[in-house]
Write a sequence for this structure.
């Protein structure tokens, strides 16, 4: 049961970061999503946009802690760590 919650939290963390990146590109740039991704990637800012997207994970983490879903919250933290390492590689 705990592994399932942990993996669910990880997937929620990844999805939330992608959603945050999508919302950032949609609302704070003049591009549509696909053009925005290409332009941001060409200029070398993709890692920074992913990092901005992970700020939504903080809200999800706090929500999970308030609902006593500690293992899911740990999965969200792992997702943030994986995304941070991937932005260093990108």
């Amino acid at each position: 049961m705990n592994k399932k919650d942990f993996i669910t939290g990880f997937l929620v963390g990844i999805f939330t970061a992608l959603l945050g990146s999508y919302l950032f590109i949609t609302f704070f740039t003049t591009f549509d999503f696909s053009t925005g991704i290409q332009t941001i990637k060409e200029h070398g800012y993709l890692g920074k946009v992913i990092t901005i997207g992970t700020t939504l994970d903080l809200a999800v983490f706090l929500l999970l802690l308030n609902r006593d879903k500690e293992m899911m919250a740990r999965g969200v933290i792992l997702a943030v760590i994986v995304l941070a390492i991937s932005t260093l590689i990108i």
Remarks:
- The chain is about 85% helix and 0% strand.
- The chain has a mean pLDDT of 91.
